Amino acid sequence: MASIKLTGDTSGEITISAPAVAGTNTLTLPAETGTLAQTTTGLIEVDMYRLNADITVNSDPISSNLERCDDASFAKIGTGMTESSGIFTFPRTGLYEVKVMATFNTTADTDNAVVQTYVTQDNGSNFDEVSRLAGSDPQTTCFGNAFVNVTDTSNVKVKFRLNSLDTGGALMGDSAYNTTAFTFIRLGDSQ
């Protein structure tokens, strides 16, 4: 196995070794001056939004009372999502897990409020339902998720819809903590 050894100006050294497998591998460096960053494995985009107040009417999309979580302990990773009129745009391509926590306050055990997750791949011309949460007890918290393959950030977007809410019911929200929240986690490259 061949290797290149670079000695530091005052001390230390870096060794670059070729893999011990057959074949030709190429490492291409950018054509610019700079410092190579240390790469780390892990998540590069994580963000969360929540309702900061109850919603008491059906909404398509849910566009009012949304805020990025702002607790003192909250931090997003990366650029984060962009929300405009209830439509969420992904910051970069990749395979994302979209999680929903919805807390319903319905007027009776027979009521059935629904939060649906929709994804478009053509910038809003067509939306496909990928997740549905339904609450039918006087107060119910439901959890759901979907994987979204974001191959183009201009076209692939997500929205949430509140449907079948009876008079007197609510999709619950609070500005101090999460009762209804939407989480976006980039798991890896788009597929």
The CATH top-level class label: Mainly Beta
Secondary-structure element order, as H and E?
Answer: EEEEEEEEEEEEE
Principal-axis shape equals elongated
In terms of per-residue confidence, which ranges show pLDDT below 50 for 5 or more consecutive residues? none
Question: What amount of the residues lies in strands?
Answer: 35-45%
Total number of beta strands: 13
Straight-line distance between termini? 34 Å
**Gyration radius from CA atoms, angstroms:** 23 Å
- Average the pLDDT over all residues and give the rounded result: 90
Helical segment tally? 0
Give the % helix.
under 10%
Looking at CATH, which topology would you report?
Jelly Rolls
Second CATH tier, the architecture? Sandwich
Q: How many independent structural domains?
A: 1
Helix/strand-derived category reads mainly beta
Biggest β-sheet description? 6 strands, antiparallel
